[in-house]
Amino acid sequence: MSDETELTTYPFSEPDRLSVDPGYAAAREREGLTRAQLPYGSPTWLLTRYDDVKSMLGDPRFSREAVVGEDEPRFMPYVHRSDALTTMDPPRHTRLRRVVSRAFSSRRIETLRPRTQRIVDDLLDAMERAPAPVDLMESFALQVPMAVICELLGVPFDDRERFHEWSAVLASTATSGVDVDVLMRANEDLRAYLADLVEQRRREPAEDLLTVLVEARDTEDRLTEDEMISLAWSVLLAGYEITAYQIGNFVHTLLTHPDLAARLSKHPEDVAPAVEELLRHIPLTSSAFFPRRATEDVELGGTLVRAGEAVLPSMMSANRDETAFPDAARIDFDRAPDVQHLSFSYGIHHCLGAQLARMELQVVTGTLFRRFPELRLAVPAEEVPWREGAILRGPIRLPVTW
How many CA atoms does the CB half-sphere of 179 hold within 13 Å? Predict the structure, then answer.
């Protein structure tokens, strides 16, 4: 077993569009795990191989809750709250996830598909009427998930600009230049806003997730007030930002691989496997995040991880592991689904909104390329501006024409 202690600075580099830093491939080839230092917190073991990442995510000896605090290895300047679903271990995690999972059941998500289709159709109708070129990010990618998540959660769509501003600030990384006080103020403002909505749902229940949370707090007494607000906070930010920029990444990737875009235009029945392959291939985040801490000595990937040490899984690297996905750098819509990608994580922290994201991406991708078979970039690909200093990668603007 390796006990390598030489520290590697991580992230390896600033993200460049949707490229994957060669440091991940080098780490996968290296014996044992990689010892890394992030901008904030203590050193950590970086997991880059598919088997190591999946094994750790399913191992209860690695605690998410135990790593939260100032010492947590992270590339965001602020410290995560300990009452968020993403920072909890069982039994607290089990209790909260059971409450909110009712709103994310496959049956509930499928009831949202027709409404999502109408949202997409209406936005594409407006785009078709507008003079080309149009900015697909502003007119479409940022609009669809906001409308869907507002409907699911029960948040007024008219407040979408405020959410966009809050989420943009909260997604800042160490290189963004955003002051920590600004981050904390955005967090407090969003939580205060959600608390007001919760009070409104107490007076006026509705068919939405906020009402489910209120009932769990006030009727079943299973949630604290802070837990309720934290759940709504997590659902809103994850359901909006992640899907919005993934739509932009999907479209950019397809427009720079015109053979794949043409295939979806001609064969819309291929959209489901196409979505899964694009989820695997596209590096959505600028770095790995959500570390765990070993609660006992564990041998992992040829390294002895001692009790108290942190580990950091890179799903992006795992999804490019050639031992799991042969010819992993190539986008292959016909790739056999023998091995599942880890874009939605794995184990007890598997993304609660995975089915919602899949449904939205299927509707968006299938409809867009069916209705606009001649869709193309209106500027050279190298002139598309990309986000910097943010957790999520994605185009800032995506000018398209047809």
Answer: 3
Contact (CB, 8 A) for 213 and 99: yes
Cβ burial 284-298 (10 Å sphere, 16+ → b, else e)? bbbbbbbbbbbeeeb
Q: Residue 297 in contact with residue 308, Cβ under 8 Å? A: no
Take residue 400 and report the two structure tokens written for it: 């398209």
134, 352 in Cβ contact below 8 A?
A: no
The answer to whether 50 and 318 are in contact (CB under 8 A) is yes
CB 391 within 8 A of CB 285: yes
Q: What is the pLDDT of residue 219?
A: 64
- Phi and psi at residue 401, in whole multiples of 5°? -145, 180
Q: What's the mean pLDDT when you consider all of the chain? A: 91
The pTM score is: 0.91
Backbone φ, ψ for residue 2 (5° rounding)? -85, 145
Token code pair at residue 169: 């600030």
Confidence band, pLDDT 50/70/90 cuts, at residue 182: confident
Give the pLDDT score at 221.
Answer: 53
What is the rounded (10 degree) CA torsion for 280, 286, 292, 294?
Answer: 90
**Got the DSSP string for 287-323?**
S----EEESS-EEETTEEE-TT-EEEE-HHHHTT-TT
List, in order of start, the domains of the chain with CATH numbers.
8-401 (1.10.630.10)
Q: What is the torsional sign of CA 16, 20, 24, 26?
A: negative
Radius of gyration from C-alpha coordinates of the chain: 21
